[in-house]
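Assemble and predict.
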Amino acid sequence: MHKRSNEPFLWMLFSAGGVVSAMLLPIHLLLFGLALPLGWLDGPGYDRLLAILRHPVTRVYLLVLCSLPLFHWAHRFRFTLYDGLQIKHLNELINIFCYGGAVLGTGVAAYLLWNIP
Amino acid sequence: MINPTEYLPKSYRARLSTYWWLTSWAYLKFILREGSAVFVAWAVIVTLLQIHALRGGPEDYAEFQNWLRNPVVLAVNVVSLLFIIFHAVTWFNLAPKAMAVRVGGKRLPNLAISGPNYVAWAVISAAVAWIVLRG
């Protein structure tokens, strides 16, 4: 029996992750990684941020924001090691590391977002 | 039994240097673009840490904010932001090549496809900023 390739599915995750990364990560990193901790902007307080985080829409949004970009990373990282550094003999291990990492990250995000104290 | 392929010439494949991507600007740009994914993963890790800190309470979150002000973390975040913007720009510019839309037998100009992506990027970024920052 010919085993069907799961490459198209992985490529779809890569592509969707590329869109999410491009559209959402710059503003997230700019706001939460630079502007707010450095006090460039008058930010929301802890309570307000927690209220936003508790909203169901935010949780689904953040799950997508964390998960898809990790699958995007997995795909690109795998092929950079494969083509860029020509590490082909460790292929199996690299795949486990990349997609395993993406699945693990998705699991952590789901766990953190499932119920918020 | 003679294995016939044993007597055929082996096809020649030149060994590529490990540093082949340093040999031209186009190759370097390619590897930088692919490398941007590492910073994408970093941005996700920062977001996960942020959610974790928010769950932990006000003290945990204040400590997380302090960690973000660490010069090393700041530097990594600045570099990450630049790489992720590079990813976004190359991604939007590739969109017309990935989907060649034809209207009336003619291909739409590149800007007709990448343009709306840039508009969406601006609108979405403004919406996220508004939700986070409004009073």
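The domain at 20-133 of chain B is CATH 1.20.1300.10 (3 helical TM bundles of succinate and fumarate reductases).
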